[in-house]
Write a structure and sequence with these properties.
Elements: E1 17-25, H1 29-41, E2 47-50, H2 66-69, H3 82-87, E3 90-93, E4 98-102, E5 107-110, E6 115-123, E7 127-129, E8 141-143, H4 147-154, E9 162-166, H5 170-181, E10 185-190, H6 202-214, E11 218-221, E12 225-230, E13 236-240, E14 245-248, E15 250-253, E16 257-259, H7 262-267, E17 275-276, E18 288-290, E19 295-298, E20 305-306, H8 311-325, E21 337-342, E22 345-351, E23 358-365, E24 368-375, E25 378-385, H9 389-399, H10 404-411, H11 418-433
Parallel strand pairs: 1-2, 1-6, 2-3, 6-18, 8-15, 9-10, 9-15, 10-11, 17-19
Antiparallel strand pairs: 4-5, 5-6, 7-16, 12-13, 13-14, 19-20, 21-22, 22-25, 23-24, 24-25
Helix pairs in contact: 1-8, 9-11
The structure holds flavin-adenine dinucleotide (FAD).
Length: about 425
């Protein structure tokens, strides 16, 4: 990769030992929001935001979409200009990894040996991509998490270039769509029998597959990689268990992430596939909070807890955690929501469901689709394809506790506007009250 690095930021000069009222580890979207919220909650606190990437905090969604197609913009991609941090007296310690933490002494140590003490600690350490060991050590294999990763991948997306996408999840499909638009010859290899089958109903998976195939993307489901290597020209050769072989100039792997919980474990916090926090972002030891994608947080509308890899969590849960850490407790209780833009295909989802949910499909034609999830007699979730307008009404229907049995036939009738259903559900609720 070239020596160009994205969005360099300013770092705070630290003496050999420093103390801050609030220290936030992880200068991604969530860390940045937590710092912003902490400053709003407490104008006097000293705040440090420590991150191991060398650039100013930025948001990741554009990395697999617009910015992958316009890599020059990656160099300036950031949430705020440096002045934002100066004006708010948020000390930035960038390009620095926290390597150890001690909850009793409330002290962190950076990779270069510097120590930092805190009164309140916010862990916003996010996730890292799961690696596919079979591809380790091979050339031109990419993972996509950081702006630097996106720059490296973007350099390979030349017209006519053969790109293999391992994993037909959201990020893999977004990259596939972007690469196809740039004129690459793209093959998606998914181990499962259908795309996104663990998270979406069959009808939606099928519509997504058709969309990508219509863009010229080859979608290979049930493709389990058995062996990988390079040919005599240095191209990557991937072979499935069934003996199907593909040759690529580059491969991008999108097979999920794992939360960065090592510091939390060293601190002795409760960890369960994510740092366990309450609605205020409080972890299991006093003075320690966690923010963003690394958290396992309560999901009030569904009951229970979840770890969500969504922008929403970095934006809103992190804000609540930062505010709580600064002494103004704030609760995060939003209904889960995320989006995925795969070229012209715009997917959104709101609410929750499990594998045994029943689905009502509203097919508006021309690739516009809404599916509603029903569980235990209630509407609990919705997924839209190119029909984002249905998301906010679905959210209100879910919040209103729309009874599935009473409305199931109308849920599936695309001629009945969801807004009309919402009106009826609310009227019925009023009748029950009076
Ligand atoms: P991260 O973004 O992972 O940030 C954590 C930061 O902490 C990183 O910079 C990491 O290097 C740093 N760090 C970790 N450990 C240490 C340490 N010990 N010391 C110092 N620093 C440390 N969501 C959607 O809803 N819609 C989308 O369309 C969408 N698209 C996405 C596209 C891509 C390519 C990716 C990667 C994610 C996308 N997401 C999307 C998900 C969303 O962007 C993430 O959920 C969000 O970025 C999480 O933010 P975070 O700050 O919690 O974690």
């Amino acid at each position: 990769m070239s020596a160009v690095r994205p969005c360099e930021g300013a770092s705070l000069p630290l003496s050999s030992a420093e103390r801050f009222d609030i220290v936030i580890v992880g200068a991604g979207h969530a860390g940045d929001r937590a710092a912003e919220a902490a400053r709003l909650a407490n104008p006097h606190a000293s705040i440090a935001l420590i991150g191991d990437e060398s650039c100013l905090p930025y948001e990741r969604p554009p990395l697999s979409k617009g910015l992958l197609a316009h890599p020059a913009a990656l160099l300036t991609h950031r949430r705020h200009d440096p002045a934002f941090y100066g004006d708010r007296r948020i000390g930035l310690v960038l390009g620095s990894r926290v390597v150890s933490a001690d909850a009793t002494q409330r002290r962190l140590v950076l990779a270069d040996g510097r120590a930092i003490s805190y009164d309140a600690l916010v862990l916003a350490t996010g996730s890292r991509p799961r690696r596919l060991a079979l591809l380790d050590g091979l050339p031109n294999v990419h993972y996509l998490r950081t702006a630097a990763d996106a720059l490296a991948l973007a350099a390979c997306l030349r017209p006519g270039e053969r790109l293999g996408v391992v994993g037909g999840g959201f990020i893999g499909l977004e990259v596939a769509a972007t690469a196809a638009r740039l004129g690459c010859s793209v093959t998606v290899m998914e181990q499962a029998p259908v795309l996104l089958g663990r998270v979406l109903p069959a009808a939606v998976s099928e519509a997504i597959r058709k969309f990508h195939e219509a863009q010229g993307i080859s979608v290979r489901t049930g493709f389990e990689i058995e062996s990988a290597g390079t040919d005599s020209q240095g191209a990557l050769r991937l072979r499935s268990r069934e003996g199907e072989t593909h040759v690529f100039a580059s491969v991008v792997v999108g097979i999920g992430v794992q939360p960065n919980v090592e510091l939390a474990q060293a601190l002795g916090l409760d960890v369960d596939d994510g740092i366990v926090v309450d609605a205020f972002g409080r972890a299991s030891l006093p003075g320690i909070y966690a923010a963003g994608e690394v958290t396992r947080h309560p999901v009030p509308h569904a009951g229970g807890t979840a770890r969500h890899e969504f922008w929403q969590i970095a934006e809103h849960q992190a804000f609540a955690a930062g505010s709580s850490a600064a002494g103004r407790p704030a609760e995060f209780g939003e209904m889960p929501w995320f989006w995925s833009d795969q070229g012209e295909l715009k997917l959104q989802s709101v609410g929750t469901w499990s594998a045994d949910a029943a689905w009502a499909m509203r097919d508006y034609g021309r690739g516009r689709l809404t599916v509603l999830a029903m569980q235990e007699g209630r509407l609990t979730g919705a997924v839209t394809l190119n029909e984002g307008r249905d998301i906010s009404i679905s959210k209100r229907l879910i919040a209103a506790g729309a009874a599935a049995a009473a409305h199931a036939h109308r849920f599936a009738d695309a001629a009945v506007p969801l807004a009309a259903l919402l009106k009826d559900v609310r009227a019925a609720a009023m009748e029950t009250v009076t």
